[in-house]
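Data deposition worksheet. Section B asks for the primary sequence of the deposited chain exactly as it was used as input, without tags or linkers unless they were present during the calculation. Section C holds the resulting structure in token form. Section D is free text for depositor observations; keep each observation to a single sentence. Incomplete worksheets are returned to the depositor.
Section A, Depositor: J.P.
Section B:
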Amino acid sequence: YQGLVDGGDKIREAGWSDVSGFLTLGGTMIGTARCAAFREIEGRRTGVLNLIKHGIDALVVIGGDGSLTGADRLRAEWPEHVRALEREGRIGREEARKYSSLMIVGMVGSIDNDLASTDMTIGACSALERICESVDAILSTATSHQRAFVVEVMGRHCGWLALNAAISTGADYLFIPEAPPKNGWEDAMCATLKASRDAGKRTSLVIVAEGAVDRQLRPIRANEVRDILATRLGYDTRVTILGHVQRGGAPAHFDRFLGTMQGAEAVEAILRATPSTPSLVIGMLENKITTQPLKEAIELTGQVAQAIESLNFDRAMGLRSASFAKQLTSYKEIANFNPDSKMKLPNEQRLRIAIVHAGAPAGGMNTATRSAVRLCINRGHTVLGVHNGFPGLMRGEISELDWLTVDGWTIAGGSRLGTNRDQPGLQMGAVAYQMQKHNVQALMVVGGFEAFTAVLELGRNRTQYPAFCIPMVLVPATVSNNVPGTEFSLGADTAANVIVRSTDMIKQSASSNRRRVFVIEVQGGNCGFLAVTAGLSGGSTTVYTPEEGVDLTRLQRDIAHLRARYIKELGRSEGRVTLCNENASKIYSTEMIASIYEAESGG
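Section C:
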């Protein structure tokens, strides 16, 4: 708002080239500042005058709840400001008539992910990635020296970052504002961490949100937790406060994707709006971009802090998204070894559950397996790990998995159990025999489309093989994201991040050599999901997918576009990339497309 109040060259028209390269940059390239003048009515009136003089009648505001509240207030006061400016002779009657209303559309840029009416805010995913990278590095030291670490992350009134960091890094204990620990939490924490150490774990990790409090709203600080662990348990304990590291660095794939989609929707919302349309905020619910009244969203967000201050913690949790409460419940159940868990089922209800990986490796396969193993053990079930996919099942390569075996699997890539693409079809009898031999009473398959077809095949053969008449569940895990029945598969986001980071480096190389284009082949099989989403996030000029295919007309059009851009840019041309799915065309391979580009470039 400082630029809005200052006016002059702080407000200027942006062209295509002005935002070129923004995708890879963290922070804000147009700047942000806390503006004391905007808090006063005269400052806001000056801002209105500057908007009118620049012919602006709609404002897209990207920021936290304070910025969005200020924007909504500006809109509410707009008619009054216009009348006052006309009376003072600072604008004419025609200007007052033409700019009689202001449209406001907000997008939430907040690493805390604290807006009540959206599942995800811009910046939260990147901050979470920074935390995970930092904690992964810390754990190497912690394990080597058998230390305990207490890590403080941001989140004054919202524990989303802390909760998701705890889940993603396999933290042993967690403190967040919405769910304060019960009285005597010091004893409970020490008992929990000691049980894990007694089970064989070499280190302890505690995540503390900066706004964490106890039931009396007394702050819980990282240093306090450290002192308790050192004094009561004798652990060599260190504190790491991540601070503004969480705000820096290039945005992650998902934040680029979210910002791109929400930015486009903000423009569409402005074009649809009328003077009576309320101020809007762009969000995301259940993976769909949403448009909601801004004022209601801000009010709901403010109610969370009010609920915490009034000790109504159930209300605070209820104001968060439904997934938040589920995540917290799941985390509490799988975080720690609990041999005396109250969740244990009676002996007659306990099962022998086998887990098998099928298809190509994908990020998250080990994490899903770890969660399943720990939840099953806490409920009294026996978990069997099948090694090397369905061929391993046929050969009886099965072993019991315990709590400690899967401890470090959260951050492990690939497949710790081993996986391959072979199907059970040719050896169905051998599969049934091994399942009977090991008394498998339920089957969990983690994998991609090969896993999907395998589970279908087992189900179709239930009449012939009674061993298959058991509960069977598929956890989709494939970088291709092509498994029916789900919008996201495990591994797809990790793969997209790898593509985007690689694209960033390749574009930097391409920019050093004027008028250079790189054609990059990406995986995905017959699904263009990776190419499209990574293309959006990485700023690809062109994307070729199996769904659209590649033909000569398309190539000619893309080459003409490249030629026109380079002619217009003259000596300041930037590097460009084209993403090509591995199965985009049977005729026009990645190498052929690159050769056609080179031939048509004229050198």
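Section D:
The mean pLDDT is 92.
The CA atoms of residues 143 and 234 lie 16 Å apart.
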